[in-house]
């Protein structure tokens, strides 16, 4: 019972943190005005939680923050994009992590890349125009760079914070 | 970072490079042009259907009705096409630079509007239009 309460509190705090990062990101100017190019700050909470407290926590936080931030800072369409990006990114991070070959850097970079791949796929489906695939190379590279950055931050945080229970 | 981690950026760069190469040497308009050449037509697509074709040399100022009743204001001036105004929530299409080269795109995801520069007579769009 005590563990349940602890977990509930932890999920709430992490989700809140993800929402704050989402808000911060929504306030940043668009450095690259192309669809799908984002820093992915919220992924920091997801990666951190994946390593710190496990995949079910991370999956929960990921889904809840997509819907909440979509409702608060976005629109129904941005939820569709975030969901595709978020789910594909999370699945790829789980798969890359499971191989045991990669550190948090590699896992996070894979997450960043597949997040953007997911968004492009949704864009092509929603817009019915495969010209969008032109953006794939630049989005793969930027996804990798932002993934590296998030991996670095996660690594630093994970080294400093230890979880119990 | 582990050594294996470097495989991911390496794979990303290689994939992106191959993808770019395929786009640049795409056979579609290769007969007359390569990406990077100046195109001469502006093709506007809404929800996957061709909406209009304008000449890049024209002075055009139109409002394109996108999906869900939202509009994009397209201006073609001095051989460049640009979205100057839009009703979409994110305004990414307005922030994108004016386009003039073959294969350049301006995309407005919420409005499902794609504006593309196409070159020459032999482009595949002409085959469809004729």
Q: Can you name the CATH architecture of chain A?
A: Orthogonal Bundle
Largest interface, with counts of residues having CB < 8 Å to the other chain, equals: A-B, 34 and 33 residues
End-to-end C-alpha gap of chain B: 56 Å
Give, in spatial order, the strands making up the sheet with the most strands of chain B: 2-1-7-6
Major sheet of chain A = none
Shape of chain A: globular
Q: Uncertain runs of chain A with pLDDT below 50, 5 residues or more?
A: none
Q: How does the major sheet of chain B shape up?
A: 4 strands, antiparallel
Proportion of strand residues of chain A: under 5%
Give the CATH class of chain B: Mainly Beta
Features:
heterodimer, A: 165 residues, Arp2/3 complex 21 kDa subunit ARPC3, 6 helices, globular, B: 130 residues, alpha+beta, mini-chromosome maintenance (MCM) complex, domain 2, four-stranded antiparallel beta sheet, three-stranded antiparallel beta sheet, 7 strands, disordered C terminus
Write the layout of secondary structure elements.
The complex is a heterodimer of chains A (165) and B (130).
Chain A: H1 2-27, H2 43-52, H3 55-73, H4 76-98, H5 104-127, H6 136-160
Helix pairs in contact in A: 1-2, 1-3, 2-3, 2-6, 3-4, 4-5, 5-6
Chain B: H1 7-24, E1 41-46, E2 49-55, E3 60-65, E4 71-77, E5 80-86, H2 92-95, E6 105-108, E7 113-118, H3 124-129
Antiparallel strand pairs in B: 1-2, 1-7, 3-4, 4-5, 6-7
Describe the structure.
The complex is a heterodimer of chains A (165) and B (130). Chain A has 165 residues and is an all-alpha fold. Chain A contains six helices and no strands. In chain A, helix 1 packs antiparallel against helix 2 (43-52). Chain B has a single domain, classed as N-utilization substance G protein NusG, insert domain (mini-chromosome maintenance (MCM) complex, domain 2, Sandwich). Helix content of chain B is 22%, strand content 33%. Chain B has three helices and seven strands. In chain B, strand 3 and strand 4 form a beta hairpin. The longest helix of chain B is centred in the first third of the chain and has 18 residues, at 7-24. The chains are: A mainly alpha (165), B alpha+beta (130). The A-B interface holds A 30, 33-35, 74-75, 77-78, 81, 101-103, 105-106, 109-110, 113, 123, 126-129, 131-132, 134-138, 140-141, 143-144, 148 and B 1-2, 4-5, 7-9, 12-13, 15-17, 19-20, 23, 45, 47-49, 89-90, 92, 94-96, 103, 105, 107, 109-110, 112, 114, 116.
């Amino acid at each position: 019972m005590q563990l349940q309460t602890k977990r509930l509190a932890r999920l709430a705090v992490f989700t809140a943190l993800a929402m704050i990062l989402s808000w911060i990101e929504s306030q940043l100017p668009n450095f690259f005005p192309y669809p799908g190019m984002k820093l992915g700050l919220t992924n920091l909470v997801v990666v951190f939680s994946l390593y710190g407290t496990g995949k079910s926590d991370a999956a929960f936080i990921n889904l809840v923050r997509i819907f909440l931030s979509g409702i608060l800072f976005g629109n129904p369409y941005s939820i569709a994009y975030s969901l595709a990006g978020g789910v594909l990114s999370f699945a790829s991070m789980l798969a890359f992590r499971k191989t045991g070959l990669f550190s948090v850097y590699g896992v996070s970079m894979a997450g960043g890349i597949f997040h953007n791949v997911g968004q492009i796929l949704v864009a092509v489906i929603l817009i019915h125009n495969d010209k969008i695939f032109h953006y794939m190379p630049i989005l793969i590279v930027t996804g990798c760079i932002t993934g590296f950055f998030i991996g670095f931050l996660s690594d630093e945080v994970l080294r400093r914070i230890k979880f119990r229970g | 970072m582990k050594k294996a981690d470097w495989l991911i950026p390496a794979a990303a760069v290689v994939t992106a490079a191959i993808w770019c190469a395929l786009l640049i040497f795409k056979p579609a308009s290769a007969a007359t042009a390569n990406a990077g050449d100046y195109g001469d037509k502006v093709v506007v697509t809404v929800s996957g259907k061709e909406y209009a074709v304008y000449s890049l040399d024209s002075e055009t100022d139109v409002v394109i009705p996108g999906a869900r009743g939202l509009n994009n204001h397209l201006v073609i001036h001095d051989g460049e096409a640009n979205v100057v105004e839009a009703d979409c929530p994110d305004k990414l299409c307005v922030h994108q630079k004016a386009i003039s080269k073959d294969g350049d795109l301006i995309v407005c995801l919420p409005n499902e509007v794609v504006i593309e520069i196409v070159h020459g007579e032999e482009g595949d769009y002409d085959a469809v239009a004729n």
